[in-house]
Write a structure and sequence with these properties.
By secondary structure, the chain is mainly alpha-helical. The protein contains four helices and no strands. Helix 1 runs antiparallel to helix 4 and helix 2 runs parallel beside helix 4.
């Protein structure tokens, strides 16, 4: 009996969705790392570059954990904590954009600050964490299903 090709495609896509999400997050993280490294290079603006670098590193670790042959509980918890820090960094960046530069923080850049721009890291952190959780959950379910047979 042949399987329905649409069902087979859907199942394959569902199984690889966490990997796809992690690759997308990695691409956007690298894009933001490159653009912020060029334009954010004075004083507290470097926190945006740091957040982008952490996001790229966490996305690479996501891919490594999702491709690992065994479930790595401690590493998964550490990466989830890192995604939470990245998401909170996006919120902190938005607050910093609202408040503006403080004279005591060193050189002041008078360029306009887009208020919602740092929230991209909150989105990246949330999507990265969800991708990792979905991938690890699917791995656990597959392990339980093979144990039953």
């Amino acid at each position: 009996m042949q399987t329905n090709p649409i069902y087979a495609f859907r199942r394959t896509f569902t199984e690889r969705r966490p990997l796809l999400l992690s690759v997308v997050v990695l691409g956007w993280s690298i894009k933001y790392l490159a653009t912020l490294a060029v334009g954010h290079n004075t004083g507290p603006e470097l926190y945006g570059v740091l957040t982008a670098a952490l996001s790229a590193g966490a996305a690479i670790t996501n891919l490594a954990l999702l491709r690992a042959p065994r479930l790595q509980v401690i590493a998964t918890a550490a990466v989830l904590a890192l995604w939470a820090v990245i998401a909170l960094g996006g919120i902190a960046g938005t607050i910093a954009h609202v408040i503006g530069p403080v004279a005591s923080h060193g050189p002041i850049d008078l360029r306009p600050r887009p208020i919602a721009a740092p929230l991209v890291f909150t989105v990246l952190g949330s999507v990265g964490a969800v991708a990792l959780l979905l991938g690890q959950r699917a791995r656990t379910r597959r392990g339980l299903e093979t144990g039953k047979e």
